[in-house]
Amino acid sequence: MNFKIEFEREDDGRWIAEISELPGVMAYGATKDEAEAAVEALALRVIADRIEAEKVGQKTISFATA
User: Comparing C-alpha atoms, which of 2, 1, 34 is closest to residue 17?
Assistant: First the structure.
């Protein structure tokens, strides 16, 4: 599975990172790197929940920044 991370900067300086392929997977950070780390961690939690619920494993998971 490959996921693209999209970034946006808020007016207050915070960064938002979002993975649109996973609904609801969005995270804020004071820096772009913090937002990226937070959204990757959240995505992995969501994927783990799906694997556990569906009893289907994933071979490869990767992230790419936009």
Answer: 34
Which distant-in-sequence residues (6+ apart) come within 8 Å of 2 by Cβ? Answer: 62, 63, 64
pTM of the model: 0.82
Domains, the chain: 2-65 (3.30.160)
| Both tokens assigned to 5 | 């991370």
Q: Which residues of 43-55 are buried (b: 16+ CB within 10 A; e: fewer)?
A: beeebeeeeeeee
The torsion defined by the Cα of 60, 16, 7 and 54, in degrees rounded to 10, comes to 20
Q: What is the pLDDT of residue 58?
A: 62
Question: Tokens 């992995």 sit at which residue?
Answer: 44
